[in-house]
Amino acid sequence: MRKVVQVVCVVLVAALVMFGGRWYMYVAMGSSPYDEVGIALNGHAPAPLRSWGCHTMQKRFPGQLPPYGCATPDGRSWM
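RE: above sequence
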């Protein structure tokens, strides 16, 4: 039983590092705010992380329309 718990923990940590790293690369260093994988990861992020990510991208891409998940209900303004 201990070995199973250890394997599950390793798999969860690996998934967190993989998906979290990909999300951070999208937010902090992506060449476009319209990357489909990044948008999906940002959409599933907890609200505080999504908010930070959207504000970071807004600073990096001024004047562009926000991607899905970072837009206000009108779809034209950053949240």
